[in-house]
Write a structure and sequence with these properties.
The protein has 137 residues and is of the alpha+beta class. The chain has one domain: Beta-Lactamase (2-Layer Sandwich). Strands 2-1-5-4-3 form a 5-stranded antiparallel beta sheet. The longest helix is centred in the C-terminal third of the chain and has 18 residues. The chain starts with 8 loop residues before the first helix and ends with a helix.
Length: 137
């Protein structure tokens, strides 16, 4: 299988953020136009699917365990994520995931906002994730 190639993130983002919302189980309930453009999926293909539809195999399970632990505690998680496009290309994003609340103050889902990650942060994080994956084996 051919190794996926990275996108030119700065070109694709054009200053706009990727935004998505999920329910409490991580099923996508909203995907903005930029998310669709960058992921290569239509909104119809994304909504109703688990957010891990775009998970790259280079992402360690422990990284997502930490995301869930953080957001389920009602706090914001911030970090880098490597995502896989529908066409097999990948892209890194600087991500912030936060709980969304209903009018009674109860968590009703989660919102993620993403922007391009810096080359320096990608290099540092990729090395950390590589070590984490090796530990998972």
């Amino acid at each position: 299988m051919e190794r996926p190639v990275p996108l030119d993130e700065e070109y694709f983002f054009e200053g706009r953020a990727i935004v998505s919302e999920t329910d409490l189980e991580g099923v996508i309930t909203f995907a903005n136009r930029k998310f669709c453009e960058i992921s290569g999926y239509s909104a119809a293909e994304l909504v109703g699917e688990p957010h891990n539809i775009i998970r790259h195999p280079d992402m360690p399970k422990a990284a997502f365990a930490q995301v869930w632990k953080t957001i389920e505690a009602g706090t914001i998680w911030h970090g880098l994520v490597k995502n896989l496009r529908k066409d097999g290309k990948y892209y890194w994003v600087d991500t912030e995931v936060s709980p969304m609340y209903d009018s009674n103050g109860k968590v009703k889902g989660y919102m993620a906002a993403r922007k391009p990650a810096s080359r320096k942060n990608i290099e540092e994080t990729a090395e950390i994730y590589k070590k984490m994956i090796e530990q998972e084996k």
